[in-house]
Amino acid sequence: MRIRTIKPEFWSDEKIAPLPSLARLVYIGLWNLADDEGRLLGSLRWIDGQLFPLSEESATDALDLLEESGRIIRYRDRNGRELIQIVSERWRRHQKIDRPRRSCYEAPQGYIDEASTNDRANPENNRADVSTGTREHGEQGNKGNEGAGSASAPVPASDSFDRFWDAYPARCPRRDKAQARKAWEKSPPPIDAVLAALAWQDRQPDWLKDGGQFIPAPAVWLNQRRWEREPPAEAARGPSRPLSSLDRLVRRVDEQKAAAKANASAGVITP
């Protein structure tokens, strides 16, 4: 996620104020999830998992309202992947980006970011856009607190790979950094989608059992583009709290008991 600033005028903006409170909250949440060109994954389960990890709320109605009011565009890319474009005349100035990074996602068909074509020709456009709550040239109101290391700054490819490597489970027995880096550099994936996918995949039973023996090698994970996989419904929201060592031990004991019961029913004698 990226840091965003909300201007006070946001709450009284005529385009935003009529929306229900949950729709306004989701709209702000989408800014945190969007890349430098206002695009993000459009999977409802993924968005719910990011914005409501510890509750049963859902963004489904809010997304419908935001689309109907023209604040977002929902579409699919050539591979059928669901995406969202946040609509604004000046999105490129909504983040603090000295050297904006190109989006890894396709733009909606026929969509033109007016900031990229009109800003130089019309200096009057260099003013705040209340509906997205951001300031001139994307400066963040908390710039002094966050400094140059804010999450909205461009991330070099090497830094993105390091973030991926640090997030990949250390218990994986086939961690080969050189091979993983080679796979990464062949076609660098969107780091936000990668980290989000690892967050839910690392909680899946196959990755937890037998000390991580079934976790794929990082290079294999990248080559198979596993960050594009959809999380199961129960994984999208995430657990109510991180699994502790005790939680994992209890889970393993339960699995062993279930296996022993199944073997007993089948007449199989286990040592």
Concise structural overview:
The protein has 271 residues and is mostly helical. The protein contains 12 helices and 3 strands, in the order αβααββααααααααα. The longest helix has 21 residues.
Write the topology of this structure.
Blueprint: H1 21-33, E1 39-41, H2 44-51, H3 60-68, E2 72-76, E3 82-86, H4 114-118, H5 143-146, H6 157-167, H7 177-186, H8 191-201, H9 205-208, H10 218-223, H11 233-236, H12 245-265
Antiparallel strand pairs: 1-3, 2-3
Helix pairs in contact: 1-3, 6-8
What can you tell me about this protein's structure?
The chain has 271 residues and is mainly α. It folds into 3 domains: 142 residues, no CATH class; 84 residues; 27 residues. The chain has 12 helices and 3 strands. The protein has a 3-stranded antiparallel sheet. Helix 1 packs across helix 3. It is globular, with a radius of gyration of 22 Å. About 15% of the residues have low confidence.
Radius of gyration using CA atoms only: 22 Å
- What low-confidence regions span 5 or more consecutive residues with pLDDT below 50? 115-155
What is the H/E string? HEHHEEHHHHHHHHH
Shape descriptor reads globular
Strand percentage lies at under 5%
Largest sheet strand order:
1-3-2
